[in-house]
Every structure is written in structure tokens, then in C-alpha cells.
User: Fold these one by one.
Assistant:
Number 1:
Amino acid sequence: MQFSFTEEQEEFRGILRRFLEDKSPTTEVRRLMETDEGYDPEVWRQICQNLGLTAVHIPEEYGGQGFGFVELGIVVEEMGRALLCAPYFASTVLAATAILNAGTEEQKQTLLPDIASGKTIATLAFAEDDGRTGSDGVAMTAAASGDGFTLDGHKSFVLDGHTAGLIVVLARTPGTAGDEGLSLFAVKGDAPGLDRSLLQTLDPTRKQARLAFKNVEAQLIGDEGTAAAPMAKTLDQATACLANEMVGGAERLRESALEYSQLRVQFGRAIGSFQAIKHRSADMLLEVEMAKSAAYYATAAADDDAENLIPAVSLAKAAAADAYTQAAITTVQMHGGIGFTWDNDTHLWFKRAKSSEVFLGTANEHRERLIENWDAMERSAA
Amino acid sequence: MSELTEASVRAEVRAWLEANFDPDLGLVEWRNKLIDGGWAAPTWPVEWFGKGYSDPLGRVVDEEFDRIGAVTVCRVGIRNLAAATLLAHGTDLQREKFLRRILTGEDTWCQLFSEPGSGSDMAGATTRADLKGNKWVVNGQKVWTTSAHHAQYGLLLARTDWDEVKHKGLSFFILDIEQAGVDVQPLRQMNGHASFNQVFMTDAEISPEFMVGAPGEGWKIATTTLMHERRGADSLRRYAEAKERPGRIYAEEKVEIDHQLEPYKWYPQRGGRADLLIERARETGKIEDPAIRQEIAKVLTMLKTAEWTALRARAAQDQGRPQGPEGSLGKLAASNVARAAARVHTEIAGADAMLTGEDGPMEGVIAEVLISVPAISIAGGTDEIQRNIIAERVLKMPKETRVDTDRPFRDVPRNTVS
Ligand SMILES: Cc1cc2nc3c(=O)[nH]c(=O)nc-3n(C[C@H](O)[C@H](O)[C@H](O)COP(=O)(O)OP(=O)(O)OC[C@H]3O[C@@H](n4cnc5c(N)ncnc54)[C@H](O)[C@@H]3O)c2cc1C
Ligand SMILES: Cc1cc2nc3c(=O)[nH]c(=O)nc-3n(C[C@H](O)[C@H](O)[C@H](O)COP(=O)(O)OP(=O)(O)OC[C@H]3O[C@@H](n4cnc5c(N)ncnc54)[C@H](O)[C@@H]3O)c2cc1C
């Protein structure tokens, strides 16, 4: 297990940070969050073409750069820090990973290069109206028709589902239940019979859509009825990435609270000189650093395809949820009245923290999963 | 008066309401009738529209109003704090001019204490009032002023002496908000509402008779106002609820609540809505989840203990005993309840916690809880300040070393940012 970043990785992070500070200042975040599309096409083009970020963890044979989840984790951590508004998590983290895990060689050859180059924005549609991430939550059916399939049902909480050009959809053979009969399908964003509506989200910087399918034509990805395992793996890998994104946001909040406490004067002294405020800052550092360690461990475990991937990911997600939410609460509190205003930037991260707390499973659910899979953690060293 | 009992008061108010309450009266007309009958504020002194009742007897009167759904006076907002402050420190002229219209709801009040540079450190106010000829002339800026955009009057804390130490150079005024020298600009909050404001004062004028107390007594008087505010922050506080019933008076009350009392629409949400936890858990089936059950039970324990602590404080007060520590804990307890409830609401909602407005659980109420609770641990004195007060005043622990109270205010270090 790797417990530090290489020099190249640190350099990569530095480049990213500077790029994102430049392209995603909060003025841009605020502008984009008010739009339906939710991203800037020109910045997206630079992300894809100049920095090649959409290709990071895609193998070279499919047009990617051939790095791993550790590098992908660095990217999303920096994006979480900058609160970048872009379909990156949907396209690269979720959809590309699902295709990598489930697709046939030929499908990877056809689908991945365009996602890697950014020409196609893809997303992954798995949860339905009840928001559950497990197989039991999948009711959408896929019926064989001609040489393809037709999908009926609905999906919800689909990241960037209203704008994506390619939607990877989880559905089941009629009459099956649980892990049996699950398959992944590729559907074009403008397919006839597909009705997409933007959801009203608490966090306006991450767009989500509800998709209704009526007799929608779809292409099978991988073998029919075998999607449960690759899908579960995809969600674990994506959850590891999400934990990294979250600690990036948490650290940014922690820093902004610290900075404010050094500038703000009450009772003739900087509020940062009050022990109550110092202790809050110290506790925040403790929680954020712990959560970072867990997030980094989880992406490293994803790269190693480690035996303890499941408990490592769940531990990281639960720790990130607690640390990010607490950092958000503390940062508002340390700002006082101004922290509760719309004009102060804290609420942008506060809302992302709240939303990430439940995205891909709540903290309680992940803690439960951690206990269920603790044996795997015990069996792996460090 | 000595033969007053719960039963006699109950009988008297019941008879009076039966004879007088008419849902087709106008709201103000009815409230004036209430005032003249002494039933608008029965706990106030007899000279000032009341009956001099004890708090417990006042609650008997409330119960009778509730029983038949009679509309009472407007009890929400800073107007209550204004009334309490004027009853304690005002002149007869001030009470005569303002108290009746506070009770009828015709005037809305706001609290002009916090400034960009002084919030927790309220005594650090730099808004100035200078006596020029026969007027006080006010210049400066206030902020986070709830309801200033609807208000006619403001309780103003301003500095009248810069050579005194900070707490002694302040005076307390009643400011006419609707004059030319006062500019009110709403501020949007992180929950999308805009119930507080920035208030700019440029040569705003106040006649000397609208100073409350004497010059230099501003801090002492503001403390009375704050004490009432913090007490109101505990879990016994009731918010207005529009009654969907026929009768002109109900329609007019609804308008009052929708318009003037706009902030109070989200105020229940900032308290965390622990009252909705069980309902939400049932709705979502999470009531079967042992982890959630434990968490709800913890929040309800906090809620109930806070409620009973407040009742214990009230009972002691009713018996005329000195306030014990339980009276200072309500505000801090309310913050803890709110945060804990919001956390459990998030777990219960699961993925739905990502949705807001009509797409969100309970038509957006839950989302509003999640993004409103941060207010409760800031407004009316932050949690940190509450803890300092509990430690230093209740527990009598040594005070923090102060660097701002030993010299003329003009020499005290102040903000570089605000
Ligand atoms: C099991 C054990 C093993 C130890 N082994 C060693 C050893 O090998 N060598 C050695 O030299 N010492 C050792 N110590 C002593 C230890 O370092 C001290 O007990 C510790 O530093 C606290 O000092 P104190 O006991 O004087 O308590 P105090 O310093 O008097 O502290 C009392 C309380 O006040 C709080 N407090 C003090 N100052 C502040 C402040 N500025 N802000 C906020 N709170 C404050 C403390 O947190 C504590 O709660 C050991 C102690 C224990 C319990
Ligand atoms: C919803 C809402 C409504 C409000 N309505 C009104 C109103 O109608 N009228 C009005 O006058 N004001 C109103 N306020 C203002 C409120 O009273 C202040 O925001 C509050 O007192 C904090 O002051 P501040 O915002 O300047 O923060 P600061 O005082 O700058 O506090 C910043 C941080 O420093 C901490 N801090 C400050 N001093 C100390 C200390 N000595 N020890 C430890 N920590 C410390 C605080 O706890 C906080 O975490 C409202 C605020 C809100 C959020």
C-alpha cells in the first residue's frame, strides 16, 4: 500500500490546482450553478484537450493515459477543492469506469476513446426514485428486441443525465430479482422515448436528472445478466473517488475558516486568538487529515484491486461524510453572521458537503457495510 | 385581586371572549378591543394595558384563546423585545406612543445592534449619535437586521461618547426607520430567503425624547433586550401559525403572517424540526432501522430534556425563586438539538436529501432544515458566546483577559475586515 504521493503526482496536483484556481473561481461557480447545463464548454474543452483529465485512468489502448485511481483521486480532490462545475464525475469517474469493468474488448474500443477525448460526455444511470444504490433498487426492465434491447422504467439522481450524450443504464431482464438478470446498456442521450428532466438539487453545482424510458432502444454492454459484479465494483471505485473529492472540499473550508479567524477582530483581538476558535480549528484539521488518509487509502486499494477494497471504501466514505459536513458547519459558525449569507462563499461548499454526505450511500449505510466486511480488512496487511 | 385563581381567571376570560370575540371584526379593531379589555397582554402592568397577572395566569388566558381559536395580539418578532425594553426602561411618553401599536401589530420593530465590525462584541458599536441642536444625528451602518424592510421603528445602539471606555459610551434610541436618512437593503441568506438587512444611517434624526434611559446607559438597556431574546430562543417559543378558517379576522391574520412575519416561515426549520423525525422515519420505512431508531431517540432525548429544563426554569421563576443555571442553557441546547436533528433528517432522507423545492422531501421542508440550521447557533449570540456567558456568569469561572475595556474606546484595536 502506498502512503505517499510521488514527485510526479505532486507536480500533477500543482498544475491542476493552478488551472482550477484560474478557471473555477467562485464567481464562475456561481455563474454556472444558475445555468441548466451546469458547466462551461470552453473550460471543459481545456480539461479534456489541454490537460487530458478525462483520459486519466483509461488505458492507453482505449485512447487514455493509463494512470490509475490514485491519479484520478488527485484530480477529483482538486476539483472538489475548487468546486468545479463540470460533468467530470459523471463521465470519467462513473461511466468510463463502468464500461471498463463491464464492456467487451470491442465495446471498450468503440466507446472509451470518445469519453477519453471528451468528445462524448457520458453518465451512469443506476439509482431509481428511492435512491438506493444496490441491486434491489433496480426495477427498470430490458427486453430483447431484434438484435438489441428496449428499456422501460425510470432512473433518478443521474449526474448530468439531462446533458449527457451517452447514458450507461443499469436494467434487469423481466422477472429477475436481486443480483440476477442485471445488465448494463448504452443509450444515446437523444434516443426516442427517453424523457429527461432536471431535478431541483440542494447543491446547484452538481446537476442531476430524472430519466423516464418508454420503449427506448439500447445496446447491451458485456454479457446479458452479468452486470451485478462489475457494477458493484464500479460503485466502489467511484465511491473511493467521491471520498477524495469530499476531502478536497473539506480542506478548502478548513483553510478559509482559518484565514478568516486571523483577520476578524472582536473584543479588540483576532477571533483566532480565542481558545474556542483555536480548538475548533485544531479539531477540524484532525478530522480532515484523518479523512484524507482514508480517502487516499481507498484509491490506492482500488488501484491494487485489494481484497479489502469494500471496507476501505466504506470507511473512507463515512469518514469523509463526517469530516466534510462538520467542516462545513464549523466554517459557517466561525464566520458568524456573514457565514450565513448567500454572498459569502461558504454555503457553496456547505451544500456540496450535505449532498455528498448521502450520494452513493449515507454514512450509516457505509458504516454498516464496513462492519459486514471487516474480515477482509483484518486479512490485509496495513 | 387576592382571590384570583386559575379557575376564576379562566371563567372570566371565557365569559369575556364569549361576549366579545367575533371573527368578522377587523384584526386591528379586535386587538384594540382586547387591549381595552386588558386581555391583550394580561401579564403587563395595569397602568399599561395589562392586568398585572403572573406568568402562570397569563398562560391560562392563552389556553382559553386557543380553545376557541380566538386571534390574539401579534407576539412574534422584535416587537416583543421592544415592548419588554420599554416596559422596563422607557418613559411614559414612549410607552404611550408605542405600546398599543405594538400590540395591534400596526408597527413592526427591528433590532439595530449588530454592525459589520461588531457582532459578538456588540459593545464595540461604531455607529455614532451626536447631539446637534435639539436632535440626535445618527451616522453609521447596522447589519443582519431582521425585518428592517418591514419595520417602522428600530431599537438602536449607538455611540455617544468616544472618550469613555467601550461599554459606557453607548446610548439606546428608538429610531424612526421610515425617514429619509435611513436606507434599508435586504441581504440574501444561504437558504435563499432574505429576512435580514443592511441598514445605512446618514444624518438620520432622533428627537431627544426617544432616547431610552440616560446617555451612557445603552449597554445596560441593550442587555435587557438581549436577555429577552435569548429566553425567547428556548424551546417554549411559539411561532405564528395561520389559521385556515372563515372570518375576516383570520384572513387578515394570514396576510400579517405571510407578509410581515416572513422570516418566521423558515424559523421553525432552523430549529431542526425534531418534531418531524418520527413521521419522516415512518414515511420512508427507516423506522425499522435500528441505527436510525437509536439516533432519533437521542435527538428526542435532547429535545425533551431541553424542554423540561426550560419548564424547570419557568417554574422557578413562577415561584419567585432566583434564576438557577437552567435558565441560561436553553439557547445552547436549542443549537445542539437543531444540528443533531438535521443530521438525522439527512440519514432518514438518504438520496432524497440531495433534492430541494417540490422535488425534495416534504415539498422542500427537509432541504430547508438542512440549510437553515446554521443560523440558530449564530443569531442572538453565538454558541461560543453562550458558553462564555455560562462559564463566566453562571459558573463564575475567571474572566478572559480583556484588552478592550481598559482604555477610551477610540484607542481600542478594531477590524481590518468585516
Ligand atoms: C499516565 C501519565 C503518564 C505521564 N508520564 C509522564 C512522563 O513520563 N514524563 C513527564 O514529564 N510527565 C508525564 N506525565 C505528566 C503529563 O505530561 C502531565 O500530567 C500533563 O502535561 C498535564 O499537566 P498537569 O498534570 O500539570 O495538569 P495541568 O497542566 O494542570 O492541566 C489540568 C487541566 O487543565 C487543562 N489545561 C492546562 N493548560 C491549559 C490551557 N492553556 N488551555 C486549556 N486547557 C488547559 C489541561 O488540559 C487539563 O485538563 C504523565 C501523565 C500521565 C497521566
Ligand atoms: C438569522 C440571523 C438573524 C439575525 N438578526 C439580527 C437582528 O435582528 N439584529 C441584530 O442586531 N443582529 C442580528 N443578527 C446578528 C447576530 O446577533 C450576530 O451575527 C452574532 O451575534 C455574531 O456576530 P458576528 O456575525 O459579527 O460574528 P463574530 O462576532 O465576528 O463571530 C465570528 C466567530 O467568532 C466567534 N467569537 C467571537 N467572539 C468570541 C469570543 N470572545 N470567544 C470565542 N469565540 C468568539 C463567534 O462565536 C463566531 O464563531 C442575526 C444573525 C443571524 C444569523
Note: The pocket of flavin-adenine dinucleotide (ligand 1) is lined by residues A 275 (CB under 6 Å).
Number 2:
Amino acid sequence: MTPDMNQSIPQDTAGDSPVTQSQADAVKLKARNVKVFYGEKQALFDVNLDIKANEVTSLIGPSGCGKSTFLRSLNRMNDTIDICRVEGEISLDGQDIYDKNIDVVHLRARVGMVFQKPNPFPKSIFDNVAYGPRIHGLTNSNSELEGIVQTALEKAGLWNEVKDRLDQPGTGLSGGQQQRLCIARAVAVSPEVILMDEPCSALDPIATAKIEELIDELRENFTIVIVTHSMQQAARVSQRTAFFHLGYLVEEDDTEKMFTNPTDERTQGYITGRFG
Amino acid sequence: MTDAAPIMNGPANGSLATRNSNDAVSRGLKRRYAAERRFKAYGILAIAFAMGMLGLLFTTIVSKAIPAFTQTMINLEITLYPQDIDPAGTRERQTLSSANYRKVIRQAFYDLFPDVTSRRDRRELFDMISPGAVYEIRDMVMANPNLIGERVVVQMPMSDDIDQLNKGQIRKDSPETERRVKDKQIAWFERLENRGLVETVFNTTFFTAGDSREPELAGIFGAAMGSLFTMLVTLLVSFPLAVASAIYLEEFAPVNKWTQTIEVNINNLAAVPSIVFGLLGLAVFINFFGMPRSAPVVGGLVLALMTLPTIIIAARSALKSVPPSIREAAYGLGASPLQVITHHVLPLAMPGILTGTIIGMAQALGETAPLLMIGMVAFIVDVPHGALDPATVLPVQIYLWADSPERAFVERTSAAICVLLAFLVIMNVGAVFLRKRFERKW
Ligand SMILES: Nc1ncnc2c1ncn2[C@@H]1O[C@H](COP(=O)(O)OP(=O)(O)O)[C@@H](O)[C@H]1O
Ligand SMILES: [Mg+2]
């Protein structure tokens, strides 16, 4: 479909073998002919996309083009919507995530998610971060749990700001802090992939800058897929960019190439601001 | 830049209108403020009216109830002659409990009025003392048989008519034929008063006894316990059922014809007249399952059926109002649907669910009609000790007393209403407390 598709074919074998995970170019998530329907309405048409490990892939496109829909099909969050149906194949490390034998609970522990609006639980900061490890039984000891929480908060760049008030409500933090708390909460489960759906759209520029910085740091340990409506953000944080339009994946390439020399006319139109 | 705003074409066309619209706005402002003030005034008026009515209700009920909290007593000196109580001297419980204490009291009382000799007068004289005085002495003797042969001062209730006379509810200056106390009795009572034998004390009987035909012996405790057991059964049955139904309908049930029918029917059920539930209870619980009549267990079940739709509807709207973002956050971390509900949704919905529960329980507490159908209107003297004992409930007790001819039951009716209101207040305070506890978890 896109030129890049051909390049990614040789990597298929690599993606099928979990041993090659650590390889820089390994394909973490692979979508093949993904179609998503909301009832009768089709929201995604035959999307083929490879998402490489330890890279930030950004999904861009005009509102309603299906970015969120695609993102949510990667950890089966669409399962929570009754009328939603996913067809095609999505695999994580070569394993079909829509397989009957796959447990969504386990899948979501491997593929975490950060949402558009910061949505901390109405609990303490500590309990927010500790919730994932607790339900997955990652540890039985309190001190270990405290360690996990601290590490997660450190990774999310929030530790220094909240270390003295871990028992205070997470909802009392500022918007940017709340979003970093949500990132820490996702990180605490030690997922392999983190999905972010417009994580900065509700934040001010300074908070946004912090999160972008954070995303760049997280890339070292996680594979990140981020939906954004800001092309500068895509350009700043991602290595690969995929452009969606009206439910189709129009083009997908290295971010730099996408923004300097896009192949498709529609991409060009969107990037230059002719529609949006 | 990304969300490219539509480019404004043509010259800005607002400048001409600006000046005129300024005037229009300032003219309109006055009107808007006036409307706002009017609206505020209406609101204050409405609240004042509501508060006034509430105040009126409370003052009338409380002022009517106050006399019920005291009781006119007589301090009578009685000699417990062994030949009257225990002639054989066995001190057997059987003998002691069936002894003729009436005679003992009568004798002591007649001794106070040596001038009253005729049979009719003596009967009227003795009518001034409550029939309950007998139990007073019996209990005293049975608790301490050594008192036999002694001379003791016993405080015993006077009859309800004398009590009413003493409280001024029966006026001495009204014609004799129009009141229940004879002129002679008034004179005797004044003699007792002059000798300092009459005392007005706090009416403990009212708070410790069950119902009675004699107002001075009647108490609210039996009905209160009946209400308590009934409410417990109602709560224990309706709360878990309603919350479970609400969770199922809201979180798990697919949206289809079936669930829609169920939903409509739940709403209909909330509008069914309560007496219908009473008929249902009579037919199902008593006639079919053979449960005991007049028992709080049946009353509680009937009221639970009545309360279910209220709590279900409240619980569903509480569950619905939990922000979807919280569910998403939990699902996104890999929580199972049940974990999402028990860890996040339910705690957040709990204040709303509790509010609905309290509203339902308050309705149930004040309900009379369905309980009439299942025999909870029976005259029950004994204080119930469990949900299976025959009992009545506060509103039914109020209804029974309001229906009684004795003057003294009027004040007791109001006092019973006060107790019912106190029950309600306690329940509401409990709900507020619980709600605060759940809300404090943010
Ligand atoms: N829960 C839903 N039910 C029905 N239609 C939906 C739902 N979520 C999204 N859609 C539809 O799917 C299309 C893609 O939506 P979405 O993925 O949210 O777009 P984006 O995130 O790119 O703005 C839109 O046309 C939207 O109306
Ligand atoms: Mg979206």
C-alpha cells in the first residue's frame, strides 16, 4: 500500500520470533488488514502497519479519521464497546492478540495505555501507581511495592514533585502532573508497549514539553505509539509517523521523510494545513 | 496551525454595529438583572414557604407531644400483709405472681379516704389509679419477697383521665357531663395533691412498654422494635438485591428487547401503589409460603419489594454517573470487569446508592397500607424480640392510637410521630455519615 510496506516484509520473520525483541529494528506490533466497525459503520479500512520496538510511532490525521480507533484496537480496549468489531490480524511479538487463547487482562498488562484526558483514580498518588502491580500480583511485599511505585514515578519524572505527598489524592495534582501520574501508573505494570491517545491535548505548553521529553526517555525501555493532532509534536517526539485519513492508513514512513517529502498528496495537504 | 481555522474572508463587518449594540446591551442588562432578582426572590419565597410549613408541622407535633413525656403518679404507702399475698408463707413464685395485689392497693387507697364509703364512690375512687399499679407491686414483691409484711411507699401511675386532669387537658370548669372525670374525683384528686402524694414524673413507660388499652401503660417501644426489625429485613433484602440488579443491568446486560422490558417494568414497579405489595405479600409469603402473620419478617419482605425499584433506579443512575474515564483507566491497566466495578465504579457510586437507599428506607419506614394487609395492624402488647415475633410498626401504631377514643392517646399519637421522625433523622444522619466516609476516599 505504501512504499514502506515492502520494506517491512522481510522483518515479518523477525517479528515472529520473540528472541529478536531486543533487536533495534524488531517489529513489536504488526497490523494486517485491520478493519474496525462500529455497528454497521466501518471506521477503519484494511490498515497495515508495523510498529517497531523502542521507537515512538505517531499516528496523525484529521479528527474522526480513526486514529484512536486503531490505537485502541492494539490493546483491545475496543472490547469494552459493545458495538465495536475488529477484523484482520494484529500481533504482538508475532502472537495474534485477538486469538481466543489470549487473555485481555494479560494483554493490557503488556500493552499499557495513557488517555487523552488525565484520568487518575480518585485515590492517593501511591495507590494510583500501585494499582496495576497490585491487581496483577506483581509483588506481595510492601517494600517491594514501594520500590515499584518509586521507580515508576521516577521514570515518569514525577518523583521529586510528589515524594512527600504520596498519600494525597492524585486528583489534586495539576493537569500535567496528573498526566505524568497516569504515565507512571501505566509504567508501573512494566508493559512492553505504551499507547498514548493525544496525551497532551488537555495540557499547557510547559506541561506538554515535559511529557514530550518524558516520551523520548521512555523510548529506551518501551515501544510507544502516540496519537497526536499536533504535527510539531509528531515531528518532535516520533521516529515513525503514520497518516490516517477517513479510516485509511494513507502513508507511513520515517517522521523526517513524512514531514519533508511525503509521497501522498493527501499527506502533503494535511501537513501543509490545507485541511484538518 | 494544525487545526487550521477557516480563513475569514471579506472585511471585518462588526465595526458599524458595535456602537448600537453597546446601547442595546446596556439597556438589556437592566432587564436581565431585574429578571435575576425576581428569580432569586421567587426562590427565597419558595424556600421560606417550605421552611414555614416545616416549622409549623414540627411545632404543632412537638407541642402536642410534650405532655406525653410526663405521667402523673401517686406515692401510695402500702402495707404488704402476708395474709393477702402469701398466706401459707411458701414464697412460691406461682403464689406471688397470682396474689391479689389489687386488694392490697385498694385497701391502702381506701384508707386515705375514710369518708368514702358507698360502693359506687369507692369504685370511682379506685378508678383513679391505673390498672397497671397492680403489676408495679407484683414485680416489686417478686423481685424481693422479703418485702412481704413490710410497709412500703410505692409510686404507681394514676389513670389516664386523672393524668389528663393534672396536665390541664381536662378542664375543671367545664360541665361535669362533658368530661370523663367526675366532680367528686376532682375533689379527691385535690385532696391527694394537698397531701403531697401526687407527683409528675418522666414517662419511662412510654419508652419501654408495648401497646396497651390503657394509655398510661401504653408505650412505643414495641412498635419501635417492630419497625427496627422490619427495616433490618427490608435493608438486608433490598439493598444487596437492588445493587446487584443495578450492576447487572448497568454494567453487564446487553441492550436488547429483554433488558429494555425489564427496565420499563422496574420503572413501573416504582409507581405501583404500596397496598398492592401488601396483597402480594399476603398471597405469596403468608398464604403460599405459610410465613407467620404480623411478623416483621413478612413486613420487611413486602417493604423490600416496594423499595427495590427505588434503590435500583437510584443505583443505576449513580453507576451511570461514574465517569467513563475511570473505567477506561482501570481497563487500560488490565483490570477485569469485576475488578473495575468493585475497585472503582462501586465505591464512586456508593454515595448515590446510599442516598437512594435512604430515600427508599424512609418511604418504607413510613408505610402503613401494605402492612395492614399482612396483619401488622394487630393489637400487640409484647415487645418483639426478633423478626418472627408478632409486631406492629411505628406508623401503624400511630394510626391505631389516632383512632383510639381516649383523650390521653392524642398526645401519645404526637409523641409517637416524634419518635418516628427521630428514627428518620437517625437514619438520615447515618446515611450522611456513610456518604462522607465514602466520599473522603475522593
Ligand atoms: N464508540 C463509538 N461508537 C460509534 N462510533 C464511534 C465510536 N468511537 C468512534 N467512532 C467513530 O469512528 C470514527 C473514528 O473515530 P476515532 O477513532 O475516535 O477518530 P480520531 O481519534 O481519529 O479522531 C469516527 O467517525 C467516529 O464517529
Ligand atoms: Mg481520538
Note: The radius of gyration of chain B is 33 Å.
